[in-house]
Amino acid sequence: MTSITSGIPLSDAQPLDMSKAKRVAIWEQSEEQYGRYMQAVESVLESNHAVRPDTSSNPTYAAFATVQVGGKVVAEIDNHGWVTTSNALGATLGDLPDSAQGAISGPALAQARAEHIAEQLGGEVVMSSTAMAQSSFSLVPQPRIEVDVQAMQDDPLYQNLQQIKQARARYMQQLAQES
User: Fold this and answer.
1) Integer Cα distance of 160 and 42 in angstroms
2) From CA 36, how far away is CA 107, in angstroms rounded?
3) What does residue 2 show for φ and ψ, rounded to 5 degrees?
4) What's the Cα-to-Cα distance from 38 to each of 33, 34, 44, 164, 168, rounded to whole Å?
5) Per residue in 23-34, pLDDT tens?
6) Would you list the domain boundaries of the chain?
């Protein structure tokens, strides 16, 4: 029997004998491996307990413009330059500009993207009453994602991470005493 997707023959495959496998403790690994593991787990914890800010009253998230073709709205662009359109239409647009006049976010980018979409589709850009200028956009503080520290500390994964840190400290102390 062979695998359909890879063409690798499975007829000679043998199961691994896990009884001879040696357990590897992360706290006994090199500083680089240990550090990468810890950083990855901490990133997962922070992501799992991230609290998204309320952007409903922040003007930088308000509408910048729409693109209309034949009087029908085919794309909406906010003051950041984020575009909302159908998946089908999005697939036909190609690459949107990723910067404009040195701006990688904001009304300058929104304008460039709106014009690009209108040009591609033969439509027109209709500015919103909430459209901002780049200079005004730059003055508005951007909300930040925060971590619910208490919820993170209550997470069993966090508790496990603390145990690993303690094991690493004991292991490093043992190594220091042996040398």
Assistant:
1) 11
2) 38
3) -120, 155
4) 9, 6, 10, 9, 11
5) 889 999 999 999
6) 29-52+145-178, 59-139
The pTM assigned to this predicted structure is 0.63
How does pLDDT run across 126-176, given as a tens digit for each residue?
999 999 999 999 999 999 999 999 999 999 999 999 999 999 999 999 999
pLDDT given for residue 3 in this prediction: 42
- Alpha-carbon distance of 134 to 27, in angstroms, equals 49
Average pLDDT over the chain reads: 90
> How far is the C-alpha of 83 from the C-alpha of 68, rounded, in Å?
13
Burial of 120 per CB tally in 10 Å (0-12, 13-18, 19+)? middle
Show Cβ contacts of residue 152 under 8 Å, excluding neighbours closer than 6 positions: 45, 46, 48, 49, 158
Surface-to-core class of residue 147, CB atoms within 10 Å of its CB (0-12 exposed, 13-18 middle, 19+ buried): middle
Angle at 14 between CA 8 and CA 17, to 5 degrees: 135
